[in-house]
Amino acid sequence: MASCLLVLATVALAQGADLDQQFSDASTDPAAVVPLIELVSTTLPTLPPAEAIALGDRVAPFCRRLFSDALPLRDRCGVRTHIIAAGETPSILARRYRTSIELIQRMNPGLEPKALSIGQQVAVLDLASVPLEVVVSRSAYRLMIWRGTTLLGAFRCGLGRDSSPTPLGATTVRQCVRNPEWRNPDTGKILKPDDPENILGGYWIGFEARADNHFKGIGIHGFTGAEPAQWLEKNGSHGCVRMVQEDIALVFALVRPGITVTVRE
After folding, report:
1. Considering the entire predicted model, what is its pTM?
2. Which distant-in-sequence residues (6+ apart) come within 8 Å of 45 by Cβ?
3. Which of 111, 126, 127, 213 has the fewest C-beta atoms lying within 10 Å of its C-beta?
4. Do 83 and 120 fall into the same domain?
5. Residue 171 domain-assigned?
Protein backbone atom coordinates (compact mmCIF):
# COMPACT_ATOMS: atom_id res chain seq x y z
CA MET A 1 0.00 0.00 0.00
CA ALA A 2 2.78 2.40 0.96
CA SER A 3 4.61 1.65 -2.27
CA CYS A 4 1.45 2.40 -4.32
CA LEU A 5 1.04 5.74 -2.57
CA LEU A 6 4.67 6.54 -3.21
CA VAL A 7 4.26 5.79 -6.92
CA LEU A 8 1.15 7.98 -7.13
CA ALA A 9 2.92 10.83 -5.35
CA THR A 10 5.91 10.53 -7.67
CA VAL A 11 3.67 10.61 -10.74
CA ALA A 12 1.82 13.67 -9.40
CA LEU A 13 5.09 15.50 -8.79
CA ALA A 14 6.31 14.65 -12.29
CA GLN A 15 3.05 15.89 -13.83
CA GLY A 16 3.25 19.12 -11.85
CA ALA A 17 6.82 19.72 -12.94
CA ASP A 18 5.88 19.01 -16.57
CA LEU A 19 2.98 21.48 -16.35
CA ASP A 20 5.17 24.17 -14.83
CA GLN A 21 7.67 23.72 -17.64
CA GLN A 22 4.90 23.86 -20.26
CA PHE A 23 3.54 27.10 -18.79
CA SER A 24 7.03 28.57 -18.76
CA ASP A 25 7.58 27.59 -22.39
CA ALA A 26 4.17 28.88 -23.52
CA SER A 27 4.76 32.27 -21.91
CA THR A 28 7.62 32.94 -24.35
CA ASP A 29 7.10 30.54 -27.26
CA PRO A 30 3.85 30.68 -29.30
CA ALA A 31 4.51 27.15 -30.56
CA ALA A 32 4.16 25.85 -26.99
CA VAL A 33 0.67 27.30 -26.35
CA VAL A 34 -1.39 24.58 -28.05
CA PRO A 35 0.59 21.70 -26.48
CA LEU A 36 0.01 23.38 -23.12
CA ILE A 37 -3.74 23.60 -23.72
CA GLU A 38 -3.79 19.94 -24.77
CA LEU A 39 -1.88 18.86 -21.66
CA VAL A 40 -4.15 20.86 -19.36
CA SER A 41 -7.24 19.46 -21.12
CA THR A 42 -6.19 15.90 -20.34
CA THR A 43 -5.03 16.74 -16.81
CA LEU A 44 -8.06 18.70 -15.56
CA PRO A 45 -10.48 15.74 -15.29
CA THR A 46 -7.99 13.84 -13.12
CA LEU A 47 -7.55 16.55 -10.48
CA PRO A 48 -9.36 17.26 -7.20
CA PRO A 49 -11.80 20.21 -7.55
CA ALA A 50 -9.60 22.89 -5.97
CA GLU A 51 -6.61 21.96 -8.12
CA ALA A 52 -8.76 21.81 -11.25
CA ILE A 53 -10.10 25.32 -10.59
CA ALA A 54 -6.60 26.71 -10.11
CA LEU A 55 -5.29 25.02 -13.25
CA GLY A 56 -8.26 26.18 -15.33
CA ASP A 57 -7.74 29.76 -14.18
CA ARG A 58 -4.05 29.49 -14.96
CA VAL A 59 -4.54 28.27 -18.53
CA ALA A 60 -7.46 30.62 -19.34
CA PRO A 61 -5.30 33.45 -20.78
CA PHE A 62 -3.59 30.97 -23.09
CA CYS A 63 -6.96 29.66 -24.31
CA ARG A 64 -7.96 33.21 -25.25
CA ARG A 65 -4.97 33.38 -27.56
CA LEU A 66 -6.56 30.73 -29.79
CA PHE A 67 -8.97 33.44 -30.94
CA SER A 68 -6.57 36.37 -31.21
CA ASP A 69 -3.15 35.01 -32.26
CA ALA A 70 -2.11 33.01 -35.32
CA LEU A 71 -0.66 30.28 -33.11
CA PRO A 72 1.25 27.33 -34.57
CA LEU A 73 -0.65 24.03 -34.28
CA ARG A 74 -3.98 25.64 -33.43
CA ASP A 75 -5.61 23.45 -36.05
CA ARG A 76 -5.37 20.74 -33.35
CA CYS A 77 -7.88 22.81 -31.36
CA GLY A 78 -10.26 23.08 -34.31
CA VAL A 79 -9.07 26.31 -35.94
CA ARG A 80 -9.13 25.99 -39.72
CA THR A 81 -7.70 28.20 -42.44
CA HIS A 82 -10.49 28.61 -44.98
CA ILE A 83 -9.65 29.73 -48.50
CA ILE A 84 -12.36 32.05 -49.79
CA ALA A 85 -14.16 30.89 -52.95
CA ALA A 86 -16.34 32.95 -55.27
CA GLY A 87 -19.49 34.24 -53.60
CA GLU A 88 -18.54 33.33 -50.06
CA THR A 89 -19.34 35.68 -47.18
CA PRO A 90 -18.81 35.53 -43.41
CA SER A 91 -22.42 34.40 -42.95
CA ILE A 92 -21.84 31.50 -45.36
CA LEU A 93 -18.70 30.52 -43.46
CA ALA A 94 -20.55 30.75 -40.15
CA ARG A 95 -23.24 28.34 -41.38
CA ARG A 96 -20.71 25.92 -42.87
CA TYR A 97 -18.60 25.68 -39.71
CA ARG A 98 -21.52 26.23 -37.27
CA THR A 99 -19.75 29.18 -35.74
CA SER A 100 -20.64 32.87 -35.47
CA ILE A 101 -19.86 35.92 -37.53
CA GLU A 102 -18.72 37.60 -34.29
CA LEU A 103 -16.08 34.91 -33.76
CA ILE A 104 -14.91 35.04 -37.37
CA GLN A 105 -14.40 38.80 -37.05
CA ARG A 106 -12.66 38.38 -33.69
CA MET A 107 -10.26 35.83 -35.18
CA ASN A 108 -9.57 37.95 -38.27
CA PRO A 109 -8.93 41.56 -37.16
CA GLY A 110 -9.57 44.06 -39.92
CA LEU A 111 -11.66 41.64 -41.96
CA GLU A 112 -13.96 43.48 -44.36
CA PRO A 113 -17.09 41.32 -44.65
CA LYS A 114 -18.18 42.91 -47.93
CA ALA A 115 -14.73 42.88 -49.50
CA LEU A 116 -13.61 39.25 -49.29
CA SER A 117 -11.48 38.21 -52.25
CA ILE A 118 -11.11 34.82 -53.90
CA GLY A 119 -8.13 33.01 -52.39
CA GLN A 120 -8.13 35.09 -49.19
CA GLN A 121 -7.29 33.11 -46.06
CA VAL A 122 -9.73 33.36 -43.17
CA ALA A 123 -9.30 31.67 -39.78
CA VAL A 124 -12.45 29.92 -38.51
CA LEU A 125 -13.27 27.65 -35.58
CA ASP A 126 -14.75 24.43 -36.94
CA LEU A 127 -17.69 23.44 -34.76
CA ALA A 128 -19.39 21.37 -37.45
CA SER A 129 -17.11 18.37 -36.99
CA VAL A 130 -16.78 18.63 -33.19
CA PRO A 131 -19.44 20.65 -31.31
CA LEU A 132 -18.97 22.74 -28.19
CA GLU A 133 -20.25 21.99 -24.72
CA VAL A 134 -20.68 24.52 -21.93
CA VAL A 135 -20.08 23.11 -18.45
CA VAL A 136 -20.99 25.17 -15.37
CA SER A 137 -19.75 24.14 -11.92
CA ARG A 138 -21.89 25.55 -9.12
CA SER A 139 -19.44 24.74 -6.34
CA ALA A 140 -16.52 26.27 -8.26
CA TYR A 141 -18.39 29.26 -9.77
CA ARG A 142 -16.78 28.43 -13.09
CA LEU A 143 -18.00 28.16 -16.66
CA MET A 144 -15.87 26.08 -19.00
CA ILE A 145 -16.17 25.64 -22.74
CA TRP A 146 -15.02 22.40 -24.32
CA ARG A 147 -14.66 21.36 -27.94
CA GLY A 148 -14.72 17.61 -27.56
CA THR A 149 -11.92 16.90 -25.08
CA THR A 150 -10.14 20.21 -25.66
CA LEU A 151 -10.65 23.11 -23.27
CA LEU A 152 -11.28 26.38 -25.11
CA GLY A 153 -12.07 28.63 -22.16
CA ALA A 154 -12.45 28.85 -18.39
CA PHE A 155 -14.31 31.76 -16.81
CA ARG A 156 -15.39 32.88 -13.35
CA CYS A 157 -19.09 33.56 -12.92
CA GLY A 158 -21.88 34.43 -10.50
CA LEU A 159 -24.83 32.09 -9.97
CA GLY A 160 -28.34 31.83 -8.53
CA ARG A 161 -29.13 32.84 -4.96
CA ASP A 162 -30.16 30.25 -2.38
CA SER A 163 -33.87 30.89 -2.98
CA SER A 164 -33.52 30.50 -6.77
CA PRO A 165 -30.41 28.37 -7.43
CA THR A 166 -29.04 27.78 -10.89
CA PRO A 167 -30.68 24.47 -11.92
CA LEU A 168 -28.61 21.30 -12.08
CA GLY A 169 -28.74 19.08 -15.14
CA ALA A 170 -28.41 19.32 -18.90
CA THR A 171 -30.17 21.44 -21.51
CA THR A 172 -29.29 23.23 -24.74
CA VAL A 173 -28.88 26.82 -25.85
CA ARG A 174 -32.15 28.12 -27.26
CA GLN A 175 -31.15 31.60 -28.42
CA CYS A 176 -28.31 34.11 -28.54
CA VAL A 177 -29.47 37.73 -28.49
CA ARG A 178 -27.33 40.83 -28.74
CA ASN A 179 -28.64 43.95 -26.96
CA PRO A 180 -31.75 42.25 -25.53
CA GLU A 181 -34.60 43.72 -23.58
CA TRP A 182 -34.75 42.62 -19.94
CA ARG A 183 -37.76 41.85 -17.81
CA ASN A 184 -37.00 42.62 -14.18
CA PRO A 185 -38.17 39.46 -12.39
CA ASP A 186 -38.90 41.39 -9.18
CA THR A 187 -41.06 44.15 -10.71
CA GLY A 188 -42.11 42.70 -14.08
CA LYS A 189 -40.92 45.90 -15.76
CA ILE A 190 -39.65 45.52 -19.35
CA LEU A 191 -36.44 47.47 -19.88
CA LYS A 192 -35.17 48.45 -23.33
CA PRO A 193 -31.59 47.58 -24.35
CA ASP A 194 -30.36 51.16 -23.82
CA ASP A 195 -32.08 51.59 -20.45
CA PRO A 196 -29.44 52.06 -17.73
CA GLU A 197 -31.50 49.77 -15.49
CA ASN A 198 -31.13 46.91 -17.99
CA ILE A 199 -28.37 44.91 -16.28
CA LEU A 200 -27.77 42.22 -18.96
CA GLY A 201 -24.73 44.03 -20.34
CA GLY A 202 -25.90 43.67 -23.94
CA TYR A 203 -25.73 39.84 -24.08
CA TRP A 204 -28.28 37.06 -23.55
CA ILE A 205 -27.69 33.33 -24.12
CA GLY A 206 -31.02 31.74 -23.27
CA PHE A 207 -31.41 28.07 -22.30
CA GLU A 208 -34.07 25.67 -23.55
CA ALA A 209 -36.67 24.96 -20.87
CA ARG A 210 -37.12 21.26 -20.12
CA ALA A 211 -40.47 19.51 -19.74
CA ASP A 212 -40.18 19.85 -15.96
CA ASN A 213 -39.64 23.64 -16.39
CA HIS A 214 -36.03 23.34 -15.31
CA PHE A 215 -34.02 26.14 -16.97
CA LYS A 216 -37.15 28.15 -17.83
CA GLY A 217 -36.09 31.80 -18.08
CA ILE A 218 -32.47 30.86 -17.28
CA GLY A 219 -29.45 31.83 -19.33
CA ILE A 220 -25.98 33.33 -19.42
CA HIS A 221 -25.57 37.10 -19.59
CA GLY A 222 -23.32 40.01 -18.78
CA PHE A 223 -23.98 41.96 -15.61
CA THR A 224 -23.75 45.71 -15.07
CA GLY A 225 -25.87 45.96 -11.94
CA ALA A 226 -22.90 46.11 -9.56
CA GLU A 227 -19.13 45.91 -9.46
CA PRO A 228 -17.80 42.36 -10.07
CA ALA A 229 -16.40 42.13 -6.55
CA GLN A 230 -19.98 42.23 -5.24
CA TRP A 231 -21.31 39.28 -7.27
CA LEU A 232 -18.55 37.31 -9.00
CA GLU A 233 -18.07 33.83 -7.51
CA LYS A 234 -21.17 34.43 -5.38
CA ASN A 235 -24.85 33.46 -5.34
CA GLY A 236 -27.02 36.43 -6.20
CA SER A 237 -29.02 36.01 -9.41
CA HIS A 238 -32.49 34.56 -9.99
CA GLY A 239 -30.82 31.44 -11.40
CA CYS A 240 -28.91 32.85 -14.34
CA VAL A 241 -25.17 32.70 -14.92
CA ARG A 242 -23.60 36.16 -14.64
CA MET A 243 -20.32 37.03 -16.36
CA VAL A 244 -18.06 40.07 -16.59
CA GLN A 245 -18.31 41.96 -19.87
CA GLU A 246 -14.96 40.87 -21.32
CA ASP A 247 -15.81 37.22 -20.76
CA ILE A 248 -19.42 37.25 -21.94
CA ALA A 249 -18.30 38.91 -25.20
CA LEU A 250 -16.06 35.92 -25.97
CA VAL A 251 -18.56 33.32 -24.74
CA PHE A 252 -21.31 34.93 -26.84
CA ALA A 253 -19.06 34.70 -29.91
CA LEU A 254 -18.32 31.03 -29.23
CA VAL A 255 -21.77 29.72 -28.29
CA ARG A 256 -24.50 28.94 -30.82
CA PRO A 257 -28.09 27.71 -30.43
CA GLY A 258 -28.32 23.96 -30.05
CA ILE A 259 -25.14 23.29 -28.12
CA THR A 260 -25.29 21.35 -24.87
CA VAL A 261 -25.13 23.09 -21.50
CA THR A 262 -24.45 21.01 -18.39
CA VAL A 263 -24.71 22.42 -14.88
CA ARG A 264 -22.96 20.34 -12.23
CA GLU A 265 -22.58 20.72 -8.51
Report:
1. 0.91
2. 52
3. 213
4. yes
5. yes
